[in-house]
């Protein structure tokens, strides 16, 4: 049976109906979802009842899964990361970021399931790096196209927030040593669609390598503000049973921090990608 796919905004996003993600995907469903992800960059599914192992199995259809070095895992499925505001301080997700760009092969995508939601607040925004790139003037696109930028784990996971207890410090230090700052192109080409996207993010990008420090700071400030423009983004108001699946190669997202001290729990399964070019 064909899925119903409804575009949500001109820049990105689609609602996908007519599928139960708890069941193994047929080849046809896998292909339809892959095509929809390419076309819309972030997909939303409603009324899903996914256990952590079913969420893991759904995500694993799209590639090898990544286990986060800092965030806790679910006991039933270690590849599923638990974002629980009662167990962890999650304020650092209230920044525009692309997940895990501090590694050589940043994630292809991620599947996020709502487990416990505040009555209001706790929305998540996604923005399209393709729309942001395409809206730049031709001379700026040309300048950016040859540049690379440094991405640093410690920008979003600073020692003073993630290394205060001895057991945390050990994990933080190990992660830092295993993930030294790494360079990626500022403009990346989607490996499947061939479309170009802006690939810097406020969460992890620290420097445009080929520019002076001041030039880099000014240009990054402009690019971070530019790619967060409402024209390139959408805001998702979560309901119980919602699942989001985004293409992490060409999007960034922002988890709105407006509901604490109410508890909120999300589960994320993250799919590894390839080396950006
Ligand atoms: O909690 C959310 O809505 C988004 C979480 C997030 O920012 C992430 O998984 O990187």
TrEMBL record:
GO cellular component, one term: cytoplasm
GO molecular function terms attached to this record: metal ion binding; taurine dioxygenase activity
Class in the EC hierarchy, top level: oxidoreductase
Residue intervals of the TauD/TfdA-like domain: 5-270
Assigned keywords, A-Z: Dioxygenase, Iron, Metal-binding, Oxidoreductase
Keyword Iron recorded: yes
Protein family per UniProt: Belongs to the TfdA dioxygenase family.
Cofactor(s) it depends on: Fe(2+)
EC number: 1.14.11.17
Protein name (record): Taurine dioxygenase
InterPro entries, alphabetized: AtsK-like (IPR051323), TauD-like_sf (IPR042098), TauD/TfdA-like (IPR003819)
Biological-process GO terms, alphabetical: sulfur compound metabolic process
Organism of derivation: Paludibacterium denitrificans
Pfam entry (one): TauD
Lineage of the organism: Bacteria, Pseudomonadati, Pseudomonadota, Betaproteobacteria, Neisseriales
């Amino acid at each position: 049976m064909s899925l119903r796919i409804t575009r949500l905004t001109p820049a990105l996003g689609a609602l996908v109906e007519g599928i139960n993600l708890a069941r193994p995907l047929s080849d046809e469903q896998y292909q339809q979802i892959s095509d929809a992800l390419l076309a819309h960059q972030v997909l939303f599914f409603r009324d899903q009842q996914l256990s952590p192992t079913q969420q893991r199995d759904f995500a694993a259809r799209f590639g090898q899964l990544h286990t986060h070095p800092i965030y806790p895992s679910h006991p039933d499925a270690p590849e599923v990361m638990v974002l629980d505001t009662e167990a962890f301080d999650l304020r650092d997700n209230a920044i525009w970021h692309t997940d895990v760009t501090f590694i050589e092969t940043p994630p292809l995508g991620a599947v996020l399931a709502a487990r416990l939601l505040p009555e209001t607040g706790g929305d998540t925004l996604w923005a399209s790096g393709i729309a942001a790139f395409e809206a730049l003037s031709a001379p700026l696109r040309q300048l950016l196209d040859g540049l690379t930028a440094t991405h640093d784990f410690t920008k979003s996971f600073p020692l003073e927030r993630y290394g205060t207890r001895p057991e945390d410090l050990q994990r933080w230090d190990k992660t830092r040593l295993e993930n030294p700052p790494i360079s990626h192109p500022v403009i990346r080409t989607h490996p499947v669609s061939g479309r170009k996207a802006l690939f810097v993010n406020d969460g992890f990008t620290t420097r445009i390598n080929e520019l002076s420090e001041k030039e880099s700071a000014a240009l990054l400030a402009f690019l971070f503000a530019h790619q967060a423009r409402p024209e390139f983004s959408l805001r998702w108001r979560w309901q119980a049973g919602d699942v989001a699946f985004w293409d992490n190669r060409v999007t960034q997202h922002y988890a709105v921090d407006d509901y604490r001290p109410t508890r909120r729990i999300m589960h994320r399964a993250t799919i590894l990608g390839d080396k950006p070019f």
